[in-house]
Design a protein that fits this description.
The chain has 512 residues and is an alpha+beta fold. The protein has 17 helices and 27 strands.
């Protein structure tokens, strides 16, 4: 899990296996001459809980969703001007962003393969491109053995790394080092490929990489005789390797992170809002803090404290627990110590983001960066430029998005300190405007956020007893969430887990 930390401050997950899903339908009951009188209580109005209630609702299940917060979405949370939140350390922030400016504090990017997009289509949530890879964004390494402290454009780093690696392989090939492996024809074809791939000189120049316009220009090509000035010279082969820049490119190859990626227009919370509207506001209770879940021979019951502070108990045929496992583990329940142990087995990850609102879009005007991500090797993790509002008079940059240790360090600081530190780091990349143009900011440390308590939760094993236990119902109580999927930390995981539970509940109901 730690291997990809260098790339993102995060980690990769195995590819999802989305099975064909057939939503429950009212006709499923009429065709067998029955009516659906089943009641389901769903704990949590995050993506998994909302998706479960939405899909079950299609076949007439009477769902009631209990949500401790006063909004739907869980970690799918868009912060706008006026958004206020108090963390587990009792520190309150209120966002002061201008109208139209927003920060996706949780999920921010959706790959083309994810079922999340199917829900956007079905619910009419409009999408726009999310720029996850931008050749003009930087890579910033300040702790590397060479080129430290110099922001390098992604395109420049790529030209140099591809160039030198191609040169080395071309030389080795031409000098006969691969004669055991390659035929004469293979070698000629490989050399042709490498010359193109690395933008190399030819055989007469010993396949040298000497830089090219792929690196970018110090003077852009223009009219008449202005041919432009190519950025030159490239650093030495040794420095390019020592810089570690080449270790960043695997991010683009990652199954989940490759372009194209998408975001809902106006904020990621358009998804939970659309789901909540489809479920019906009368079926979702906010400010409802679950206290107990009991399984009974003929159903299950939930006890919660409602927004007025009253304790309420209700029975249902099924309960879907779609809340974080470590939070669920603390509820009073009669599901057995095996369930408690299993719930405590996935470990929450620290994760944090800061939104920096600027009075000007200097990254567009000065740096020619229109969306995209700059990875760093310091504790910022990544900086994200906005994929909306191009050429507007303000804009909002994600000043850090990181996980584990850096997120734990930042999470301990009060907000003003987080801002001060994040800005000081950013100034090293973007200069004084990174401080002078700042208008306001808002930060989230997910592991210190009430009822959520983690950016996501990771398993030691997803084939072990704990994982298997929670992927089965405990009597009439089911568990759902991205943490029970093979795409942890993606909405896709929450949706697919909810679909699985919905399918199980529905087939069990129909079989009765
Ligand atoms: N889905 C999150 C993101 O894209 C977290 C994550 C990162 C999950 C990398 C897996 C791999 O940032």
């Amino acid at each position: 899990m730690y291997s990809a930390m260098g790339a993102l401050g995060l980690a990769p997950v195995p590819q999802a296996h989305a099975r064909a899903f057939r939503p429950p339908r009212r006709g499923d009951f009429t065709s067998i001459g029955r009516r659906n009188g089943k009641k389901v209580i769903v704990l949590g109005a995050g993506i998994a809980g909302l998706a479960a209630a939405y899909e079950l609702g299609k076949a007439g299940y009477a769902c009631r969703v209990l949500e401790a917060k006063n909004r739907p979405g869980g970690r799918n949370w868009t912060v706008r001007g006026g958004t206020t939140e108090t963390d587990l350390d009792g520190r309150t922030q209120t966002a002061d962003f201008a109208p139209g400016q927003y920060m996706n504090a949780g999920p921010g990017r959706i790959p083309q393969s994810h079922v999340t997009l199917e829900y956007c289509r079905e619910l009419g949530v409009p999408l726009e491109a999310f720029v996850n890879q931008n050749a003009n964004a930087y890579i910033f390494h300040e702790n590397s053995a060479a080129l430290a402290g110099q922001p390098v454009r992604w395109r420049t780093a790529k030209a140099d790394v591809y160039g030198y690696v191609s040169e080395l392989l071309a030389k080795a090939t031409d000098q006969g080092a691969l004669d055991q492996t390659l035929t004469t024809t293979d070698k000629e074809r490989l050399l042709e490929l490498l010359k193109d791939f690395g933008d190399l000189k030819g055989r007469d120049d010993a396949w040298a990489y000497t830089g090219s316009s792929r690196r970018g220009y110090s003077v852009e090509p223009g009219a008449a005789l202005e041919a432009g000035t190519v950025l030159a010279p490239p650093p030495s082969l040794s420095d390019v390797i020592a810089s570690g820049l080449g270790l960043r490119f695997s991010f683009e190859f990652d199954y989940q992170q490759a372009m194209m990626m998408f975001q809902p227009v106006g904020g990621m919370d358009a998804i939970p809002k659309a789901l909540a509207a489809a479920i019906g506001s009368d079926r979702i209770e906010y400010g409802a803090r679950a206290a107990a879940v009991l399984n009974h021979s003929d159903g299950a019951s939930v006890t919660w404290v409602n927004a007025q502070g009253r304790t309420v108990t209700e029975r249902a045929d099924y309960v879907v627990a779609a809340i974080p496992p470590m939070v669920m583990a603390r509820l009073k329940h009669n599901l057995g110590s095996g369930v408690t142990d299993a719930l405590l087995s996935p470990q929450p990850w620290e994760a944090g983001k800061i939104g920096l609102e600027y009075r000007s879009r200097w990254w567009e005007t000065d740096d020619r960066i229109y969306g995209g991500v700059t990875p760093t090797d310091n504790d910022l993790g990544t900086i994200w430029y906005p994929s909306y509002g191009y050429h507007g008079d303000r804009g909002l940059v994600i000043g850090y998005y990181h996980a584990l240790e850096p997120a734990a360090v930042y999470g301990r600081l009060p907000h003003a300190e987080r801002e001060r530190r994040a800005v000081a780091e950013g100034v090293k990349i973007h200069g004084a405007k990174y401080r002078s143009e700042l208008a306001s900011s808002f930060s989230v440390a997910w592991h210190r956020t009430p009822f959520i308590e983690g950016g996501w939760a990771g398993w030691e094993s997803q084939t072990g007893v704990a994982y298997q236990t929670l992927n089965r119902p405990a009597g009439n109580v089911y568990f759902a969430g991205d943490w029970l999927s093979n795409t942890i930390a993606w909405q896709h995981g929450a949706f697919t887990s909810a679909r699985k539970v919905v399918t199980e509940i529905h087939s069990r109901t129909l079989a009765r």
